[in-house]
Amino acid sequence: MSQEKWIFGATAIGFAGFGIALLIFPNLIGLVGVKELAPSGMVEIRAFYGGLELGIALFFLLALNRPKWMKPALVLQVCLLGGVAIGRIFGLVVIHWQAKPIIYLILAAELILAILGAITLFSNNKAKKKNEFGIDKTNLK
Amino acid sequence: MKFAKFSLLASAIGFAGFGLALFIAPNLMESAGLSVIDPAGRIEIRAFYGGIELGLAMFFLIALKKDWILPGLSVQIETNGFIVIARIVSLFMENFQANSTIYWSLAAELSLLTLGVVAIRLYKRKQKEK
Lengths: 141, 130
Hints:
The structure holds two protein chains of two kinds.
Chain A: H1 3-24, E1 35-36, H2 40-64, H3 70-94, H4 101-129
Helix pairs in contact in A: 1-2, 1-4, 3-4
Chain B: H1 2-24, E1 34-35, H2 39-66, H3 69-93, H4 100-129
Helix pairs in contact in B: 1-2, 1-3, 1-4, 2-3, 3-4
């Protein structure tokens, strides 16, 4: 299996896992400091954390068998996980890095997947620039 | 093609708007029934609502520029589709006891979902005609 498929598989499992968990147990969001007030908060957590994460997981599963979607899926991965990681780092800076260990664990997972996606995207672009005779054109410009 | 691009642009604007607002003011989520008094809660709202929505908006803009119509519309339909399903199921579970913000959110997500479904059908029909 290609590197992209491993990354998409891991991303889909990650999003689906958190999505299903929060769909069934929305109170779990309390672990990261969001306390929901029933019932509107319960609806919001199930919809946005559960629904959105399952939708994203489905896209990555579909991309597994569509070679033309490899690049868009890698870009989506970098945008989503990069966006979440930047948002979390900004939030940490605002509160002077005073957060529970779970926040840092989540940040580490997001950063790893975002960086993996970016490296794969970059290496794929570089490989495409090599012509059929094996000449690397990346440094010719 | 034009309608598909309009659909992607509408998604980008919608997600960017909400994402930016919640990135700057995470306490706005209190209107949706979430308590974010805890500083850790504000980090979570900034990251998940702010960061992920801005990331999605960025993806839709890149999809527009690169003509990734099908994968772009697919992301639009799957994300909004699952949010709408989860919101409706959850409203049933809570006996529809939710405030107006929840219903306005549902209306916005349902609009983006409908736009995406119509756009992908029109796009596929045009592709078959070619």
